[in-house]
Amino acid sequence: TALPRLAVACLLRAVALLLVRRPQAAIDELSALLHVLGRPAALVAARRRRRATRTVPRPSLQPLMSSPWERAQTRLSAVLDRRRQLRKRGVCAGS
């Protein structure tokens, strides 16, 4: 269940990186995704090890985490800010 969500998140990050003209970072993101998808057993094993050594119950950490909406909003804001910076410098089309 985690792999499809991870894949979608990586693809969205790669698109966002392309929008702000950071193609090398987008390539790195896609490369990391392919690496993880090529070795899903390693990801599952790492998560299993983490679960076995967990000292704090997961639900007790939930109030410390931002909601998915807040994370998406922050990322979108960062992409739009970067786009504005590039437009000011005349790097983006339509400026």
Q: Can you describe what's shown?
A:
It is built from five helices and no strands. It is mainly alpha-helical and 95 residues long. It is flat, with a radius of gyration of 17 Å. The model has no long low-confidence stretch (mean pLDDT 86).
How would a crystallographer describe the biggest sheet? none
Count of DSSP E strands? 0
What share of the residues lie within helices? over 70%
SS-derived structural category:
mainly alpha
Give the overall shape: flat
Distance between the termini: 42 Å
Secondary-structure element order, as H and E? HHHHH
Low-confidence segments, given as residue ranges, are none
Mean pLDDT, nearest integer?
86
Compute the CA-based radius of gyration. 17 Å
Number of helices: 5
